[in-house]
Amino acid sequence: MTFVCVRALARTGVAVSAIIAGGSALAQSGDVNVYTYRESKLIQPLFDAFTKDTGIKVNVISASSGLEQRIKTEGANSPADVLLTVDIGRLEEAVRSGITQPIKSELLDKVVAPQYRDPEGHWYGVSMRARVAYVSKDRVPQTTLTYEELADPKWKGKICIRSGQHIYNNALIAAYIAHHGEAKAEEWLKGVKANLAQKPSGGDRETARDVAAGKCDIGIGNTYYWALMNNNEPDKKAWADATKVILPTFQGGGTHVNISGVVLAKNAPNKANAMKFIEWLASEKAQHMHADLNYEYPVRTGIEVNPTIAGYGKLNADPIPISKIADNKKAAANLVDKVGFDN
Amino acid sequence: MSDARSAGWSPLQRWPARLHWRWQASAIGSVAVAAAALAVAPLLSLVVLAFGDTGDLWVHLARYVIPPALVQTALLLAGVAALTIVVGTGTAWTVTTFTFPGRDALTWLLPLPLAIPTYIVAYVYVDILDALGPVQSTLRAIFGWRSAADYHFPNIRSLGGAILLFSFVLYPYVYLAARAMFQTQGRLFSEAARMLGAQPWELARRITFPLARPAIAVGTALALLETLNDIGASEYLGVQTLTLSIFTTWLNRGSLPGAAQMACLLLVIVAALIVLERRGLQRRGFAALGTDGQLASRITLAGAGRWVAAGACFLPVVLGFLLPAGYLLREVAGRGLLAGFDTNLVRYTLTTVALASTATAVTLVMGFLAVAALRYTKRPAIAGCVNIAGIGYAVPGTVLALGLLSPLVLVDNALDALSRAATGQGIGLLLTGSAAALVIAYVTRFLAIAIGFAQAGFARIGLELDDVARMLGAGPGTLARTIHLPLARPAVWGAALLVFVDCLKELPATLLLRPLNVETLSTHIYQFATRGSFEQGSLAALIIVAVGILPVVRITRYTDATTPHNGVRP
């Protein structure tokens, strides 16, 4: 009985595995192979539109970590053409690990603002998000906020935030270091820690929920989550209704933004298609899709943001070079440990 | 022995015994070696990674990261161990010792929490118990509180919450392992004890539990390693575990070598704990216990006792399975996920099942044969191999996947070069570019389950059986097929179930190692979860549950029905 079952199990397994292996494209010409940290569900509409426009099929692997390592290990035989990421730190990491080649596109240089692309052309930004405050409509009368102010004792027990080691907060703290230096950043982080209503946990949506529930007055989250809750998720509309979004700024700076970007793999087997894909991502059509489907800020100048996002107020993006954030990533992670932010 | 003889050994199989024995034992032994090689390959590449420069990283880690992470991890593991042992062993003992209302249904309901990914259960409970969830909303309505600031309610996003959640999802590891042992525990002890006037509880405390200790240890170890593997739920609940620190070191501190070193350190700690546990077992001399062939009859409970038993066994099912599954069902209905059925889900389901069943079959065969080899050859080298083969489970999934990349690509490049030399045409990355990489990863990761269960199963088969069979001229193949496999069958089926369901749920290695355009149910759910709206993946989560339930029901029924014959194939 046991052997029969195991055999039957193995047989079906092998048969269906053959189907999977046959169905998955192994670096075929006429395609473009995309490795992505962006959720494939999120960007599938963009891929579909690209295929419709150009006839080039997009093959995808999406993961949450380790893709640079995978491309690096796969080496000369790697099927990867393009890597899409969600954080400046990861773009820089990809370049540092030697898996990229310069994109060299005059077209892109023309439409993407210089602060959102690598001077050497190894990475280009595709879209942006800002890290902002969801504040209680009832309990917080003020309409402006600075990041520095989050450490003010007047907010004692009033702030909710997810783990300080999460990539979004890591970038925010790195930006703080870039502005004020490590010593001041440490003092600030201690202050914020002292103001927390609860131990960092959950995600950005939970901070909105906690504000709505009255656990805290200020939650830190990304711009698009609030728009998604407000427009696309009826069961979470109440959380958005109880809060308003303030775009905080650094003293003497602007609102902290981070980018999603793209690199061209060093051994891209379909380089021509990959270039078409990368340039298409910065096209007006793709930028509109980023703005309206995903509620992100377009990197291409002259594209309007979605009305919900525009409702937050005019974004005054922090002018510090975005690569400075990547430079301070490790220092930020260490500070979080040092002040025991997550403990 | 008439049983063994009637199992149908042909004269050919009995002769010439010595020769027969040697080559078959070597063949089976080579499986153990292969299993060990599979486990060692990713660890070696991890060790290579660990040799990179880490600067002053360890000063920082030792001062700020490791101490709190160690404390949190130790508390989490201790809590989960205590609760899973109590719940898993308690329920397994109750359903094997007594007959009470709902007992038959409970035998297959109890393992079901396995079928729901832990991080999904975490999301569900936070939704239910958080300030705006139904529980607190009801409390507010009853007591007239206006906001969450007006009262104190224990926060589920905490260490305590994590211990409860992990325990009610992971106790089935202990339940399945313990139940398999209780079932095969002979009538000899129990009847003797009962004749001497021992109460069921006394019998359990003095005989049943001590005899099942190896199995309980295996189940608990699996539950703890599963806890250690988790990232999603721990981060969401705000518990800073060592595993989470490994990831932060890799991704935020930008030090893959540092992360690899931490992973190696974690591995050494885990290995040491496992060795200690094994030593403990050996000293107490559990190796050769005979079973006498018949299952003790169950005691029928009467009066209040039967309701207490039913209630106590039903509670973990409610908390670990019915409540979260019910929540998912409500989300499926509320969001119209069935009406707007995503037809891709059919493909994802087929992919998931194909991968899981292939990997399960390979894992079981390798695990069983490796343990059998240990029994037949008794060489220290084979013992070493079997111990090493299970180590893949002690490494977090993503780390294992990272470690597997290099060996896989190495093999791929060799195959590619061969093909180029032979045909002039390259074949690219054969393993890494196909589902083979995933099957290899699953086998590497879950071999520990098959090995652990098989060892626990073998430990209960008396060595005298082997001697008699050998005297009658049976070779290792015959011995494995007609004696050991049937007698270890409940254990093997328990392992099959766990491995299959674990493969269905596997996320971190699947994410990183999958070929282009391959989506499993669990990666599909993850897409939504990372975006903070896991509810969108409710239907896919329920499909995992449904696919997982079928084998759970079949296998528990099967082992229930066949054990009284005690293993000799009907």
Summed up, what is this model?
By secondary structure, chain A is an alpha/beta fold. Helix content of chain A is about 45%, strand content about 15%. Residues about 20-25 of chain A have low confidence and may be disordered.
What report would you give on this structure?
The complex is a heterodimer of chains A (343) and B (570). With 343 residues, chain A is an alpha/beta fold. Chain A is 44% helix and 16% strand. Chain A has helices at residues 2-23, 40-54, 67-74, 88-96, 106-111, 167-180, 182-195, 204-212, 223-231, 237-241, 271-281, 284-293, 307-310, 322-327, 329-338, and strands spanning 31-36, 57-62, 82-85, 100-101, 123-136, 159-160, 218-222, 243-246, 257-265, 297-298. Chain A is globular and about 60 Å long. Mean pLDDT of chain A is 90; it is low at 19-27. By secondary structure, chain B is mainly alpha-helical. Chain B has helices at residues 2-6, 11-14, 17-50, 57-97, 103-109, 118-129, 134-143, 159-184, 187-195, 200-229, 232-237, 242-251, 256-283, 304-334, 344-377, 380-389, 397-423, 436-459, 463-471, 476-487, 489-505, 508-513, 521-530, 538-562, and strands at 98-99, 299-300. In chain B, helix 6 crosses helix 14 (304-334) and helix 9 (187-195) packs across helix 10. Chain B is globular, with a radius of gyration of 25 Å. Classes of the chains: A alpha/beta (343), B mainly alpha (570).
